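Async update (no meeting this week)

Hi team, since we skipped the sync, here's where things stand on the single-chain job. The sequence we agreed to prioritize is pasted below, unchanged from the tracker. I ran it this morning and attached the output directly underneath so nobody has to dig for it. Comments welcome in thread, and please keep replies under the output.
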Amino acid sequence: MNLSLYQKLAWSLVVIFCFICALVYGWSKQLEQTSQHHGEQNLHLQLAEHLVQDNPLIKQGIYDYKALENLFHTLMLLGPAFEFYFVDPQGKILTYSAEPGKVKRSHINLTPLKRLITDPTITPLYGDDPRDNNKQKIFSVAPVYNQDSLQGYLYVIIGGEAYDTTLNNIKANDSLWLAVLWLAAALLFLFVAMLVLFRFFTAPIKKLAAGVSLIEAANYSLTDSKLSAYSNKNNEVDNLGRGIQAMLTRIDEQFKALEQSDKQRRELLTHLSHDLRTPLASLQGFLEVLNQPHRQLSTQERQHYLDVSSDNCQQLKQLIEQIFELANLENGQVKIHPETLNLGELIYDCVAKFCLTADHKEINLSVEPAICDFTVVADIAKLERVLSNLIDNAIRHTPRGGKIIVHVQDVGSEQLYVDVSDTGVGINQDELTAIFEPHYQASNSNKAGRQQGGLGLAICKGLLQLMNSEINVQSELGKGTQFRFNLPQKIKA
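Output:
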């Protein structure tokens, strides 16, 4: 059975309170009874001795037990709280005054009697009750001698059966009021204790609820409103507070991420609109010129317009392909198929594709080391895309007469590092972390490269992340830029 915090507190309080009440009540009753017996026994300690000294029938030795029984009967009429017994030196009850069947014992234990005679200060001391085989009661005792010969003991029970019956009747009349008083006191204590305890335990919950209300009023923004610190790991309310704080912090981070994503999406749409509008407008303009029947164009002009229109179509195709490629990367729809390949062969294939463009700009495009015989594990198509993008980006940002080097470095840790460095215009240091964002164009970028739409580096980073690789960049304005990424090396057996 699962109990709530409130139920645990309530039941614990009731059980502890009942236990304490029972303990205190039992202890107080025991203390009361012991004190009562101590006082009564001390008060009547000499009663038996006085009776022996004041009654010639007892003082001179007992032989007429019938007469002694009559004496006991008379004494009980005068003092109904006492019971009188005469026992022999072995503890046998010789005579008494009681109705037939009342006395259950024939013998009593003399040890307590002898102890009290020897040391009267050890009260309360209990002796056998002749009228009950299991009870003991306080008593008064005196030895009876006849010419220095012990005849027996006068054994007086203090608070006999008649006394107990009368006292119990009186207590029965008072017990109802006593029970009512105890119940009222218990309920009052329980009520006050529960109020104090519940206030103590619910104060943190009230504080937590107030903090959550403030954050709700602030539209769940944690900029101006935060929950108080909760440091006690063993407290349920503190654990709840920390959980709510962590949840709100996570929600706040997600809100900010959504806002940033929305901002980037709007910027992406703006860039895409511009990048698509430029070649479309150019294409539309040249096609309109070519479509004018009244305009006489030479063969050279017509061919030029067709070449420009074809370039614009190719630019549109590349841009749309990049957009779809980047969208697939962000959606996790691109799959990697790693295989073992010769890195040098792939690099030389990529360099060969850009040799004519590099020669046209008089750029020296080289590979180091020249004999690049390294085996790696990667996705061939994705790695070729990365290398092509980096080399193309380097050519577009390297001026005429510059140098581009594709360098492979073996650091001996089962990893190869590939560097694509150029002697181009370089990038500002404060822009290095942003160049991998879609459609970001560095402030000093070659505007002739605008046709790429700023998606190439973002695609490179996404593809390398899928291959568990990381790309880094170092650059200095006017001196060039270096892009570096790592690949797992296939160790030859």
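Quick observations from my side:
The longest helix spans residues 161-217.
The longest strand covers residues 136-146.
Reply here if anything looks off.
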